[in-house]
Structure formats: structure tokens, C-alpha cells
Amino acid sequence: MTNKAHVEWFHGSPEKIKILRPGSTVTPIITLARAFSHKPVKLSIEVFENEDTGKRQIRISHDGTRQGYLYRVIVQKPETDLIQHPDSHGASGEEMLTKHALPLEYIEEVPLKNLYEYSESY
Question: Per the domain annotation, does 55 fall within a domain?
């Protein structure tokens, strides 16, 4: 979904938390973290590319039912702090697991929304 270098990491949770536990999921895609904050059972990602404009439209839908919270994860060394999520269906690096507890920075409350759409250049 993204061609950008992964320098920031995000976590969405339906709970207010201060520390991210080992084995938690993080992503460099802020919109995906917002969708995960609603605790969905099913999540769908659709990507539409327009070769004429060089734009990519991304649509994330889910069946979550809870309001959420968005956090920036303080990752010092991704190569030692994170591992690839073994059950991820996304591209490598887009859904990672924490290897140990990591500090968080609260960003915002995320009202329940079952569809997220955004576009980016590729």
C-alpha cells in the first residue's frame, strides 16, 4: 500500500494505554492503525491505481464496533524492536509485531468509522 520509507510507526487500540506490550501490531500506515483501533474481526483493503495520474486510491473497510485511540509508537531500532507479522496479508513491513514493550505517544481519539479512504502518489 505504501512506497514510502517506514520511519514512523502507529498503533490503534480500543483502549487507552501507555505502553505497548510485546507481540502488539504496529504499522507505518496511519489510516490502517485508525481502522485497527476499532477492533475489527474482518478488515478489507482495496487499492486502485490510476496510471494516467500516478495516483493510488486506497479504501479500508472493517466490521469493528468500538471507538478507538491512535498512538505513535516510539521505535528506536526497527531491525531489533520489530518483526514481520507472520499472518499479515500486506506487503512486507506494513504490519509488524513488537518484540518487547515500547513507549507510546498519544495522538488522538478515533470516532467509529467503518470506511477510510485516502489517495497518494506513487
Answer: no
